[in-house]
Design goal:
mainly alpha
Length: 293
């Protein structure tokens, strides 16, 4: 229950951060794409800094969730970040939530429930042998290079989608490294084992790299193109890390059918939600004296 609670808090923080960062990234000229000057432009915007503050809150909650539960349980819960954020935004801005948003919320929520019940993830260890990281990091590097290379040859939504998937892979790697680092803390080594583990510093490096990729994804394409790739990519790749590195298990066989149905529902729900004016930041609150029906 602790891991699920903090996973939900992580999702809420990350979802709000994505919307704020998207609003800031839209003002960045195309000439600054894939350059460090992109960050320099963003850091001068208060809305982007607010998003970064929520990212830090999310990182603390995520570390707690991963330290108390399997990665294949914690990471998929993050698919609720967008629907939860949009509903909260509608409440705060006193905007009537469109029917399409409710459909998206229902699709994502039911898809997540169906997927978790069907896959029944669990088990696994809290840490990974160092040598097991070598092939995992090599394969991740090749996958990331292919995505970034493909993104540089395209523009618009295709670039945003590819970079969104690259950011998702980076965030999944960050979660796996974080869980391994927190596992060493809980294995009896204490704070000294945590602070001297290379996984802790690799977590920071992977997180910064993923943040850079996400800013470029949001700058290149619409939220409709980026968010589904980011949400589903993070969940699926995290599960792969959980199974291959931590020895966690999922149901297979005929259970794969409802699991695929769950992924389809989540994907369709994310697309529906990302099209909402609440997600793009274009929703207009009612004027004073106007009654919201």
């Amino acid at each position: 229950m602790i891991s699920v609670l903090f996973a939900v808090l992580t999702a809420l923080s990350n979802g709000a951060a994505s919307v704020l960062q998207r609003r800031a990234a839209r003002s960045v000229p195309d000439t600054e794409a894939m350059h460090l000057s992109l960050i320099g432009h963003l850091v001068r915007q208060k809305v982007w800094l607010a998003g970064i503050g929520l990212v830090i809150v999310a990182a603390v909650c995520q570390a707690t969730a991963l330290a108390t539960g399997p990665i294949s349980v914690v990471q998929p819960i993050f698919v609720i970040e967008l629907p939860a954020t949009l509903l909260l935004a509608g409440f705060v801005m006193r905007i009537r939530v469109p029917r399409g948003v409710w459909y998206g919320v229902a699709a994502v929520t039911f898809g997540l429930a169906l997927g978790m019940v069907s896959a029944a993830p669990g088990g696994g260890s809290s840490s990974v042998q160092d040598e097991a990281w070598i092939p995992a990091l090599i394969m991740t590097g090749i996958f990331e290079a292919a995505l970034i290379g493909g993104a540089r040859s395209t523009r618009g939504n295709p670039r945003g989608a590819l970079l969104g998937l690259a950011a998702a892979c980076g965030y999944a790697l960050t979660a796996a490294l974080m869980k391994d680092a927190m596992g060493r803390l809980g294995d009896g080594g204490g704070a000294a084992a945590l602070m001297t583990s290379w996984q802790l510093y690799a977590t920071a490096a992977a997180g910064v790299g993923s943040l850079f990729l996400l800013q470029n994804a949001l700058q290149a394409g619409t939220l409709v193109a980026v968010q589904p790739m980011l949400t589903l990519g993070d969940a699926v790749i995290s599960i792969l890390y959980g199974v291959t590195l931590f020895g966690e298990y999922l149901r297979t066989g005929w259970w794969l059918l409802p699991e695929l149905v769950a992924l389809t529902l989540i994907a369709r729900g994310c697309v529906q939600l990302a099209r909402s004016p609440l997600a793009s930041g274009n929703a207009v609150p009612p004027s004073r004296g106007t009654r919201v029906k």
